[in-house]
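Problem 12. The chain below contains 235 residues. Write out its predicted structure in token notation.
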Amino acid sequence: MKKQILTMGGGGFTSKPENLKLDKYLLSLSDKKNPKVCFIPTASGDDESYKKRFYSSYKKLNCETSHLSLFSPPEGDLRDFVFEKDVFYVGGGNTRNLLVLWKEWGLDKYLHEAWCNGAIMAGLSAGSICWFEQGLTDSKTGKLLPLDCLGFLHGSNCPHFDTEIQRRPEYHKAILNGTMKPGIACDDGVAAHFIDGNLERCVSSLLNAKAYRIKNDNGIINESVIEPVYLDDHF
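Solution.
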């Protein structure tokens, strides 16, 4: 059983509903013709406009849609609800709040169990970094700082690498001073596809967008470019 995660630096239906290449790529990872996709908007406080954007975009795609709210939870057993789904898309927002609520409800454990049984995990921004051991986020104090996350994937993660100017220097600094593990950063429009914990490929919905491996080489930052596969009009 493959354990798959797609982590996006930004883009997709969240900010570019006219460009759904990353969303289509996500659905292509499922072996189901009409996969059941569940949007989890916890990090945004279940923002209504965010949910509407999800439904508006994904109704154009070959899938069944639903969302999971921990503020207005579904009736019945939460684990049963999770295990009915094929794909989980986690939205952006406050990563710290997401983690606190998930752990309080046991959702982190249910998602891990579902992932180990073939369900696909995905998301962007907060929904990207949550899957790693650590992520760079402003959700703790408003300042970009390391945050311990779920650890489905080893290492650290930083989204929005090309669009938020403080991301690169702060990520470099945290890796250099040892408060963050080496990791992967993604520009907006780029997604990293992991299978069984290993990076399978990076894909991009935008020309010239990149991903990067970043590590500390004896006190010097080593930032190497990962050229993503550009998703053509097929997606």
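Discussion. Helices lie at 12-15, 21-28, 48-58, 78-83, 95-105, 107-116, 126-129, 167-176. Students who got a different answer should revisit the alignment rule from Section 12.3.
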